[in-house]
What does this fold into?
Amino acid sequence: MDMLWSASTTMRNPERTLNFLRTIAEMEGESWNHETQKRLQSLLIKNRYYAPTHDNLSPSQIALLDNLSLELSYEQARDIFDSKGYTDPPMRGRTSFDPIEKLGLVCLDKVAGKQVIRTTPLGRMFLQDKIPLEDVIFSNLLKFQFPNPLSNDRRDYDTKPFINTLRLIKRVNELCQENGEKPKGVSRLEFGIFVLSIKSYEQVEEKATSLLKFRYELSNIHNEDETNAYIKTFVEHYLSSFIEPLHNSKEYTDNIIRYLRLTKYVYIRGGGYYIDLEPRRMVEIASLLEHDNGSAKQFTLDEYKEYIGDYYSYELPFETIEKLTDITKGVINEINSLETRLSLVNRSFTIENTIEMLKQQIEYLRNERTLLQNLILKKDYQDTIKIDEVINCLTNIRKLELKPSIALEKWTNIALNIINDAQLIKPNSPLGDDNEPTFTAPSGVPDIECFYGEFGAICEVTMLTSRDQWFNEGQPVMRHLRDFERTNSTITNYCLFIAPSIHVDTINTFWTSVKYEYQGQKQKIIPITISQLIEILKTIKLAKERSRQIRKEQLKILYDACVSISDLHDSTTWQAHISTQLRTWTESMIA
It folds into this structure.
């Protein structure tokens, strides 16, 4: 039977890619056989990038896994792996290796009759931080095709899924315009049925027509039960040759959208329900679709491995002086439009005249656009109705369309922009051209940086609440703050740490750095819950309704009160102290 297209379901979170690659890179040059396949999965356990379930494990092994402060030895990790009693132990390693290989980050070379692990040039660039994850994903999706020499399935296909996704959405929008309807991309439901079932580039026109017919017929049904029955019948008939179409169409859609967002070529609209082409990338999209019709190319296995493992093997057709100049002019027009909205003087820019300088200028201009978009965001969310929107989103953070960890970074960033008159609130999460986060901030940097002039702060957020919170956030948060302190050494600096709840081990760790020291100096860390952040926002709203403006100096008063713990004797009273200081501060702000 046929299969719907999807990114690897083994690795649902693309941000795990780097950790898996690092582990595989430890095995560079080793033969790929049953023993090394088991060794890979054991290394993932050792490095704590994979956590097996507890069944078949002894109490001591479970304790090792659960105590995240312990550094596992390879022998301990291998013992845990062997104790699981898997039916096919080597298959576990092959399953972990597969998505990294398909991304072109590693490959298997035949040497003296053996398969040997090699990190590709693309993989080395990623490991050396020369390219970000979104560029890795974009590079791979441009080349990914069926049939695929790395896989034995879909031999009767003829498609580049990413290219044909863009082609189908574009064609649907064109047909809508021809029919006098407003283009809106395709819905998630439509995506799962029509986009993921493309077997050949020649089907795009038929798929677009069928999609709009389905949309029209569905719009004329107004009873929920009848709607669900119609969808079920249609999917079972239309995708009758596909494996588990009802289940897979939804699951695969949710999965692949994470990858598509990273390319910045699609964006989500209509409250998260519609997938559309990114209007700010239409020069690039049009150029790609003129250049590539979405048909699969002929490769031997070795040719394909070299092709996907080389970052530069797909020549981007819009990297010409003419196209890059058009892109530059478009971003400048956006900047000027945003400046007008902010009552700022429009800047003029001299457009560069070489390909490399134009690419650098476009990157610079897009960063400038992001800064202006954040100023617009800050301006728009000063309205008390908008504050209610943020409160509602933070209250229901697990129910939003975005993955909760990404949503928390997004809405915390907006909350910090609302709270006071900061000079700059700078999120470090990668952003699409629509200023929406595509995933969480990378490791090694704070989630959000805040610049207030007289003082500075970082903000770290997490959805973790168990002991994992302490393991994943304790040391990194203190290290990020210390790095920020060094960079901004002439002012006082703080860290606001936000989570649904604060684990006792996290409190104990931060208490030590605030009460005593971290790397020889005290720090100023304020751990609060999402509920307490909501209380601050409610205070801001009440103050605004009473024509009062809470300024950065007043926020500093709250921060100082929360870290003034000289009279506290142990960490168990610190959270209560913070709650008291927040309540006192709230009362003073609205008195």
Remarks:
- The radius of gyration is 26 Å.
